[in-house]
Amino acid sequence: MIIREALKAERSKKQMMRIQEYIENDGARFAELMEVFLNDTPKLMEYAAWAVSHCADEHPELLMPYVKYIVPHARHAPH
Fold first, then answer.
1. C-alpha 71, offset from chain centre
2. Cα gap 55→49, rounded to integer Å
3. Given CB 3.0 to 4.6 Å as the disulfide criterion, which of 28, 44, 46, 63 pairs with 56?
4. Sequence-ordered list of residues with C-beta below 8 angstroms from that of 41, at least 6 positions apart, any chain
């Protein structure tokens, strides 16, 4: 799965669950998701945030390396 393409293809709870199941606790796959969350178009960043939330609920340890990027990012995120 190419996570960016999956986010573009469909915005639904079912799709977020597919992405979460694909990532599971794989740090490299989560890094791919975080790349979209931190550096893509505003709309894809929004979709990625939903998937990040789902993944972090199940595997919060995946989020820890990104906390230092998320806080400043949230301050400057487009609304």
1. 15
2. 10
3. 63
4. none
pLDDT tens sequence across 8-35: 999 899 999 999 999 999 999 999 999 9
What pLDDT is stored for residue 73 in this prediction? 66
Spatial CB neighbours of 13, under 8 Å, sequence gap ≥ 6: none
What is the rounded average pLDDT for all residues in the chain?
A: 90
CB 50 within 8 A of CB 61: no
CB of 62 within 8 A of CB of 27?
Answer: yes
The pair phi, psi for residue 15, each rounded to 5°, is -70, -40
- Of the candidates 33, 34, 39, which has an alpha carbon nearest to the alpha carbon of residue 18? 33
At 61, list the tokens.
């340890």
Residue 13 has which token pair?
């709870």
